[in-house]
Amino acid sequence: GRVWSRGVGCHARCRATWELAGGWRWFQSLVAIDDSASGLAVPGLVDLQVLVDDKVVWRHEGLKGGAPPVPVGPLSVKGAKRLTLVAFRLLKALAIFQSLVQRHVLL
Prior knowledge:
The protein is an all-beta fold. The protein has no helices and eight strands.
């Protein structure tokens, strides 16, 4: 068990979309199954995707409960309008995207 100070938690079988309006440069994250899933009869197994403007740019299949966090990116979102995070439930689980999004700064 690690406690994350920021991030997005979602139940598996989730699709969350953020409007970026072209002002972001990178998406970088860690993703893992929340420890609360370990108490379930079935500890959890999910497939994950990151979409940029509705195109899959990252995927991970078969993330298991108890596994260490998996790095996502950095993925370019420069000029993108939307970022979508998807968790497909293979078995009951809670997926956590520990997110770090770096804003592009114009000099």
